[in-house]
Design goal:
Strand content: 15-25%
Oligomer: single chain
Number of helices: 0
Strand order of the largest sheet: 1-2
Structural class: mainly beta
Order of helices and strands: EEEEEEEEEEEEEEEEEEEE
Helix content: under 10%
Shape: rod-shaped
Largest sheet: 2 strands, antiparallel
Length: 203
Amino acid sequence: RYQHLVGQDLCKKCPKGWVQPDRTSTGCAMCVTGKHINDMGKLYCDDCKPGKYNHEQGRALCHDCLIGRFQPDTGVTAPLDAGGCHVCPTGWFQKATGEPECAVCPAGWSQGTTVQGACDKCATGRQQPLVAQADCEDCMVGRFAAVQAVVNCSFCPLGFEQPAEASVDCDGCTAGRFANETGTVTCVQCFRGTWSGEAAAED
């Protein structure tokens, strides 16, 4: 509190963003950068919490880091683009404001751009078995992914083949050919003395 007039019976409360710890003061002091106070009549300013920053004096509230950014430290005085908040790197995201850290993209998802509020699902025909990745990878030959956000591509079942990468399904072996192992790249012709009159034969 303070009082700049003589002959007064009450002191005035310092406004938000200002404080005064001295009981005999005639004025208030602004909160310095990196600090704030959102109440009137306070003695001391508070540090900006993690996820926030303040490069201005006399603030009632600190600024929130925006979506796709974070700040783990307290009392940050730098402006937004000068270290006030850090950028979430590729493979990471932050969907909320005022957060102290970024979240990792889970397996089956990726994010190839910085400062993002979400991750992207791996497309059909692709996979991502690891977390915090910038991109997904194509299914290998003999494998497929029929849905999005696949962690590991599936092996083609018995009687099916897939010679192409990034496939969403497998092809049944044609008559006269077979595949007796999962993950077959190319069906095999029937051996001499054997035959297969059905498609997708296992043996």
